[in-house]
Design a protein that fits this description.
Blueprint lengths: L30 H12 L3 E2 H4 L5 H6 L4 E4 L3 E2 L9 E2 L9 H12 L3 E6 L10 H14 L4 E5 L7 H7 L6 E3 L9 H4 L5 H13 L3 E8 L5 H13 L4 E6 L16 H13 L4 E4 L18
Parallel strand pairs: 2-5, 3-4, 5-6, 6-7, 7-8, 8-9, 9-10
Antiparallel strand pairs: 1-2
Helix pairs in contact: 4-5, 5-6
Main location: cytoplasm
Cofactor: [4Fe-4S] cluster
Protein name: Lipoyl synthase
């Protein structure tokens, strides 16, 4: 009997690295979660909680809160980390601000986070819809505080002025990663332009916030440089969380950052001049966002 060599198929995909125990989350359940689910479906709303596969959706929705995504659910950008669909948007609903504001009122949200896809094809980047959504939410729910997580306006500073003038308490723009990884992670964005957007927001007198994903291959000294750059451009609040690969088509996880490392980065950020740092494996931009409205401007 002849022993034949075993030939492995060349197309076999490498096994995905196993997630460490600290990244395990519970499935969303409970009456509060179900109530939010019904309202989101009834009002035909998009949430980044779903589109972004957020690991905290169960915790946040279970508390009766959600992060709403306006201007549709198709993005004009093709960032290599993001699960939101890329393409040519067809949705531009001028009634959306009313529907979002009404849903926030019905849900009795104390603190709402509003974000959007990039709409580069629109002359004003969707700024008028942004502004009206915040204004109507304040009118219908005057006791609700608001954070707006705004996209890169591609240096359309007139659009930025409209986006940030609705009366929201926190204005966030995520740089997402360190400067050296921008072409890989955010090919249609620029590190210096995002910093300028934060700088202009701060100069207008607002509470500023940004977020960085870790585990994409960044080095510690590059993260420290990004912290210094953010402080120099007027950032108040920084969130640090673990990058998780949404699908095999997206960037691989280069490293799983330990909880102890996240704790160290929080201390380092505060030492370098940030006023508030939210840092942990499951932290996302809107995680514990209600705490950020109390950070001094």
């Amino acid at each position: 009997m002849i022993d034949l060599p075993v030939i492995q198929p060349e197309t076999a995909a490498p096994a995905r690295p196993r997630k460490p125990d600290w990244l395990r989350v519970k499935l969303p359940v409970g009456e509060e979660y179900a109530a939010v689910r019904r309202l989101v479906d009834e009002h035909k709303l998009h949430t980044i909680c779903e589109s972004g596969n957020c690991p905290n959706m169960g915790e946040c929705w279970g508390a009766g809160t959600a992060t709403f995504m306006i201007l549709g659910n198709i993005c004009t950008r093709s960032c290599s980390f993001c699960a939101v669909a890329t393409g040519r948007p067809t949705e531009y609903d001028l009634d959306e601000p009313r529907r979002v504001a009404e849903a926030i009122r019905l849900m009795k949200v104390k603190h709402a986070v509003i974000t959007s896809v990039n709409r580069d094809e629109l002359k004003d980047r969707g700024a008028s819809v942004w502004h009206e959504t915040v204004v109507l939410t304040k009118q219908l729910s005057p006791g609700t505080t608001i954070e707006t997580l705004i996209p890169d306006v591609k240096a359309n500073w007139d659009a930025l002025d409209v986006m940030i003038s609705g009366g929201q308490e926190v204005i966030s723009h995520n740089i997402e990663t360190v400067g050296s990884l921008y072409r890989l992670v955010r090919p249609q964005a620029r590190y210096d332009r995002s910093l300028e957007q934060i700088r202009r927001t701060k100069a207008a007198g607002h509470r500023t916030k940004s977020g960085i994903m870790l585990g994409l291959g960044e080095k510690a000294d590059e993260l420290y440089q990004a912290m210094d750059d953010l402080v120099a451009n007027g950032l108040d609040i920084l969130t640090l969380g673990q990058y998780l690969q949404p699908t095999r088509r997206h960037l691989d996880v280069a490293e799983f950052i330990t909880p102890d490392q996240f704790a160290h980065y929080k201390e380092e950020g505060l030492r370098r001049g940030l006023k508030y740092v939210e840092s942990g494996p499951l932290v996302r931009s809107s995680y514990h966002a209600e705490r950020h409205v109390n950070v001094p401007v």
